[in-house]
What we know:
It is a single chain. The protein is mainly α. It has one domain (8-84): lambda repressor-like DNA-binding domains (434 Repressor (Amino-terminal Domain), Orthogonal Bundle), CATH 1.10.260. Helix content is 64%, strand content 0%. It has helices at 8-25, 30-37, 41-48, 57-66, 71-78, 81-84. Helix 2 packs across helix 4 (57-66).
Amino acid sequence: MVRLPLTPEQLAAGKRLGRRLREARGSRTLAEVAQAAEISPETLRKIETGRLATPAFTIVAALARVLPVSLDELAELSLPRTDLQHTG
Length: 88
């Protein structure tokens, strides 16, 4: 299966998500949060820097569980702005 390149909107959504996660992490280290969420530090680093713009739902849910941020907020940040205009 060939994965299509991400759109500019998806890339922008990934950067928004990454910024919010970094902000929510606060003074906790990347390694601490990654361990608590049971993901690799490299995965969290890629998400925070926008290099992994479309992380799996289970990863986003795990991060919402260990950070002071709701899954609803992370879901909204993860959607391209064009998608938000079509929801209800």
